Amino acid sequence: MLRRASFTWPAVAASAALLAACNGDDGPRPPSTLAAITSTSLTGTVGELASSPLTVKVADDRGGNLGGIIVTFSVAAGGGTVTPAVDTTDGTGTATTSWRFGGTAGEQRVTATVTGVATPVNFVAQTIAGAPASVAIQGGDNQSAAANTAVATAPSVIVRDRFNNPVNATSVFFSVSGGGGSVTGAGAVTNPTGVATVGSWTLGPAVGANRLTALVVANGVTANPVTFNATATAGAAASVSATSATTLSAVVGALVAPVPSIRVLDANGNPVAGVNVTFAASNGSTVVGGSKTTNLSGVASPDGWQMGATTGTFTLTATVGSLTPVVFTSTARNAAAAALTIVAGNNQTATVGRTLAIDPAVRITDAFGNPIVGQEVVFEVISGGGSAVVRRPLTDANGTATVGAWTLGETPGTNTLRATATGLTLAGNPATFTATATAGAASALSIGAGNNQTTTAGSTVAVNPSVVVRDNRGNPVQGVTVTFTPSAGGAVTGGSAITNAAGVATVGSWRLSAVAGPQTLTASLAGVADVIFQATATAGTATAVQVVGDSVLPAFPVNSFVSPLPTLRVVDANGNPVAGASVTFEVVTGTGNTLTGATKTTGNDGLAQITTWRIGTVAGVYRIRAVVSGLALNGAEPTWVVTGTALTAAQITVAATSVATQAAVAGALVTTVPVVRVVDQFGNPVAGVVITFAVAGGNGTIPGGQPTLNVSTDGLGFASVGSWTMPAGSGARTLTATATGTGITGNPITFTATVP
């Protein structure tokens, strides 16, 4: 390859600029286009050089070739290398590189780029795999199939080149290398995915290992040839035969020995494993493990074959599909006595001293339930008292022995009777019968617990009342129902109680009525006299206060004693009066109140009353309340209200808003209207007192034009003339205000108005 001049586009540009300055030219132009000189579509083999170099040309915008331009060649896809990766254009504007393809078959790409040129040149090559380099099993290895049949999956191999690309159109030869058998399609060719598949592989006739070899017809292939393995299994069951004696014997109920067994073979005489075999016992015998599968030797047997409970001949049939079954026979022999069992009369119940309804009986059998005849059995009472008759019977044809009779003892509880087969060691020997002696009928009812209790009204007593029921022998009677009935207002739970083993019946609970006082609970049992429980219901803690009478009392003159006196009742949550509560009466509103007996203790009726209440001397509202110790009423305490009224009029004065003497103007109203105020002896205003305002002749006029005007004092004790008009002329004028009544100090009042 020719060596190119070593210069670059910047150097050329500088030289051109100098020439342009000397010659007046515009100077060199920058790269504008990049174009391929050689083909951009190539083909080849992976890892090999492209058949021709990659050449591009750089030109300016006028089409002039540019030398000294740097061109970068880079692999864009598929791997591989370019040499050189960077080349500089020669005087013709061309740059060249060599391309060695990557190892991945398919499309590969190299891109040529120049700085300043937007569009690169792409060279694209379609590559194929190289020569075969390795072979491996693709599928169909380690299969199993019946002897003389084809495996399910035809064996296949995959051939790859040194870059692991699948190689197409490579010849592969398949041949049987062990176990016999045959193949079809032995000469195969790889497809585009590198896979070659044999037509079919039929295994040999014998059970065991088979091998198939695949050879790639090419040199230098690693792991060549490859070997497939398969296992030939037995074919379908074709025959079944016994491998043990078919005529056997055993004791009744015993297992047959040896255990019968069969063998299953295929049509080639190979033992067939995994075949389902059904062993079915007949005539009352029992097979254990009747569903089996043959082992690798084609053999199967049940877990055991047990004879029936009676003597005779039994059969066991081994069936394999539709093949002719194998039948085994065995003769059952007698067995010895083995067990004693209770057959009647156990776990009975009767009244003390009575004979049981069912006579106890036992049965003696061999190990498989066959009756033993003529065996003596001894019956004897073990506990509870009582007696048995005909105590030594012999077993009958059914193997049964029965005691004559069993009478229970006189004490309630458990009685036992033992039955023993003499001279034998048997399962269940001796056998023990159990019976329960119960008390007689109930004849007496008595209090057990919970009488004479005291608790708060409306609450439950601490001890649930109970009674004891006994028979005429004094034995406690179990299982009878006692009814508990409370007195009016009370309540119970579990009012129908059943006596326990001690004859005790207990009510679930007894809640007293909400009314304080004596309470009763009656326990009843049919045919027996009732018993009555007593209880006392007491008032609970104080929860409320009730005002007795009116809380708003009549009005009283000031400084008077209040009557009726404030009275209250303290009650519990059920309204029962609470005795012993401390009550304090205290003033809420009004001054000058006098209380005596302000702290009281409630009596049995829950009542408390103040001794005296004298209100003060100021007219108005007086209020007291009652506070109960320990009872927080949070502002809802009972309160009594009295209105104190003024006494009779005792004094008349000029009102503070008026004046007794003033200057006036002739023919005009006085500036300050005359007003008087009437009060009682304590200074309380007195309403309704008639005040007569009088004006003498020549002293002016008042409303109505009359010389007198009657006005009643208002609620504040005030009375006003309304207006007073002066006459013409100067001088002093007078107006009198006289209160109706006697003993009124300051009466009458004289008002003077002077006209200058």
The whole-number mean of residue pLDDT values reads 92
Helix/strand structural class: mainly beta
- For the record, what CATH class of the largest domain applies? Mainly Beta
Instruction: Give the CATH topology of the largest domain.
Output: Immunoglobulin-like
**Secondary structure tally, helices:** 1
Distance between the termini: 154 Å
Weakly predicted, low-confidence segments: 1-25
Q: Work out the count of structural domains.
A: 7
The CATH superfamily of the largest domain is known as Immunoglobulins
The CATH architecture of the largest domain is Sandwich
What portion of residues is helical?
A: under 10%
- What strand line-up does the widest sheet have? 2-9-8-4-6
**What's the count of strands?**
66
Rg, nearest Å: 67 Å
For the report, how would you describe the main beta sheet? 5 strands, mixed
Apparent shape:
flat
Proportion in β-strands:
over 45%
